[in-house]
Specification:
The structure is a homodimer. By secondary structure, the first copy, chain A, is α/β, with parallel strands linked by helices. Helix content of chain A is about 35%, strand content about 20%. In chain A, the strands form 4 sheets. In chain A, strands 1, 2, 3, 4, 5, 16, 17, 18 and 19 form a 9-stranded mixed sheet that branches. In chain A, helix 7 packs parallel to helix 8 and helix 12 crosses helix 13. Chains A and B meet through helix 9, helix 11, helix 13 and helix 14 of A and helix 9, helix 11, helix 13 and helix 14 of B.
Chain lengths: ~475, ~475
Amino acid sequence: MQTLIQSVLTLQNGTLETVDVLLMGDRIHSVAPARTLPVAPHQRLIDGTDRLLLPGFVNGHTHSSQVWQRGLIPQLPLELWLAHVFDSTPQQLDQFYWGAVSTAVDTLMSGGTCVMDHAYVIPGQELETVDALVRGYKAVGIRAVIAPLIQDLPFASGLPKGCLLPQGASPRSSAELIGLMEEIVAEFHDPASGIYIGVGPTGFHRCSDELLAGCGELSDRLDLCYHTHLLETRAQHRLAQERYGISAVQHLHNLGCLTPRTSVAHGVWIDEGDIDILARSGSTLVHNPVSNLRLGSGLAPVLKSLQAGLNVAIGCDGAASNDAQNMLEAIKLGTILHNVTDEDYEHWLTPEQAVAMATAGGAKGVNLGDRTGTLAPGMDADLVLYNLDHPDLLPRTNPLQLLVLGRPTDVLESAWVQGRQLVHQGQLLTVDTAALHHHLRHQSVAAPDLPIQHRWAEAHYRNVMLRSVGDL
Amino acid sequence: MQTLIQSVLTLQNGTLETVDVLLMGDRIHSVAPARTLPVAPHQRLIDGTDRLLLPGFVNGHTHSSQVWQRGLIPQLPLELWLAHVFDSTPQQLDQFYWGAVSTAVDTLMSGGTCVMDHAYVIPGQELETVDALVRGYKAVGIRAVIAPLIQDLPFASGLPKGCLLPQGASPRSSAELIGLMEEIVAEFHDPASGIYIGVGPTGFHRCSDELLAGCGELSDRLDLCYHTHLLETRAQHRLAQERYGISAVQHLHNLGCLTPRTSVAHGVWIDEGDIDILARSGSTLVHNPVSNLRLGSGLAPVLKSLQAGLNVAIGCDGAASNDAQNMLEAIKLGTILHNVTDEDYEHWLTPEQAVAMATAGGAKGVNLGDRTGTLAPGMDADLVLYNLDHPDLLPRTNPLQLLVLGRPTDVLESAWVQGRQLVHQGQLLTVDTAALHHHLRHQSVAAPDLPIQHRWAEAHYRNVMLRSVGDL
């Protein structure tokens, strides 16, 4: 199967250019100046006039099952928000299937061709949960990296001193979890079909050193993405000081967890020293601007990170902390938000840089920088074709700026993952979205009462985290 | 004409309730508990099941002709951005007509029923420009307040010392401008048809005291909204110190410009004393979160303003500083953005408060709080019906939270302005949007080269505004 896209606008080395692109099988075969590639009779021809072709975005951090909690959880700081999330987490396997389908569809229809799913898995049904997720992603046809959330410390251990909470059930041991991950990798890691398993320790705050380092060893040995939450909140920053006496980033580095396969979500509270360690280790910072605002976590130092050479990707985060999974929304906010953090506008992110973050930056963050995220010969054909004639992309000014700084919807005309066309004329070709919507409509999770844990924790949290602003 | 909407979810005093709503002529006649209003044979009946009925939002600050500059102007601080905007401002009357149509359509289809257009008007063709705008708004049927931008100081006067720029042409005198405004009011101010003229001095930075006060006198005498830019940037804050030696807000107050008819756009750099003056005067702060980030202006003190009793509205600002005119986007960002400015989450804006800002808050800001922005008997029927069965508003959790914190598109089923139905089954009933898109497609403004003014001003701006961070 060959597809020739003729005279299409695209970004080449950060500049808009009109080119011909030939797709062959699952790969991009060639990229050449417009109207220079010969047309062969067996090729499918696509006229690229008034179209923009970009590598698919990577939704660099999300939690797919939170689709069921969209619109459910109030705006709260992470530590209290989590109590609500735990209380309403779905526990049925088919909800995980449809959660993956919904996350994949929303990501795809907003220009994404790959999802990093830092996935909640049902305790005792971990393999079955991953199986449901894999089936969901395969049904849509999107590329997916599934990193099951694992932790070996109880919830209360993830809070600074004084933020008392019931310890809760003791999670599995580090050794058991590593064994479980080996099983999951053996069963589901399947690069040829675009499904990958990552190791996803929840975050240093809920993981022992043994588990963090064990995940690092697994990532090294099996060439897996290492994905973890890192310093999302001030409480986590404080906890790191209490527990380690050094920065959490330095601690992870000492444990061997930071490599070019590593991506850390949020990093709102990393400082310049942390940025330097992350950059030198070749790791990736995944920025989740909508979630960081919704939970009041803060503004991640994205401009400083990029200036220091740290790779940055963009994520939506789960639908319980960003009640949408729209990549274009996350990219717009992740672009303009940082203008208020640096007076010198020459440091501000351009639309071209934003696209690079969300494509090549995202691909590197999931350890797939050599396969996806770049429009170049030899790369997998993970591509999205935008219709520049759509009203949301008018008038005819700078199409990339309209895409990134506007609020376009339904502008996606075609999309391919590994050369397979998933979207044609704006319509998804794979799953039946009516069935998805039927399930979302009829299987809703009830809004919980104010969780007991919240009421119990609120006073402690308030006492510790709000009465001491400025001492960190 | 009577319309009975039965058993529809709505907000009553900040709480979701299911009610019956009867519209009669251009007004809301009654609001009563669900299934209690009698059905009369001549009424049109609408089943409110799975629907949410809200007062229409007010797009509290925009510049309609910037539709043509959408996607055109780079991200720059206001003072340099303006040089680009001036260089590419449309100068043909039909562009103003279509600019108004486009702004009205985008506002309406994202839940807005009223626009405050702080309108650029072609020098020497001011009445003709306003006429084109009025025709555009009437064609769509939206309520509109048109406040022509007027100033009697040259552009360079609006910058702090050292930010040298060519003075440019001398604008008209204050007396001429006031005379012009009286003419425009006499010709176009027509409350019965939903078209209002406001007085819109560009901002203190480009207006003499005589013009600012003259506008205040006009607003008092003719009961007009007084709308002006205020302390959008640090440069304006510095200029006020240089020119007045007191805060710009205090200065405007001393001139008699701050009344319950006054709304000020941005207020990014107002301090607590300013908030107090604005609140006590009964004025309105119009928050434009997307624009404030895109131009790097800063974070307006919205939470502190609300806590001090200052009325706050939400605006999109013009399409040259927010490359979309989507009210739901502006409301979402204006809600979650401020969570990072206050550690105490009990101060964070709820979806209910966000809706109140964008409806009643916006209506008060355009001096129409007694006519629109509230769903209550006797108010004008400016209402929007959302389809809660739309995939963007699933699963069935908190519909208001999904509307405000999600990224819904095409969720609007019906909309009425002054009792006239403008949208039915998601389709606009009034203007031909195909014609609008044809004009946007074929009349595009070319991207300007880097404006001469920009090159000239950049070094001065950099020298004055960036080498002295922290001295204000």
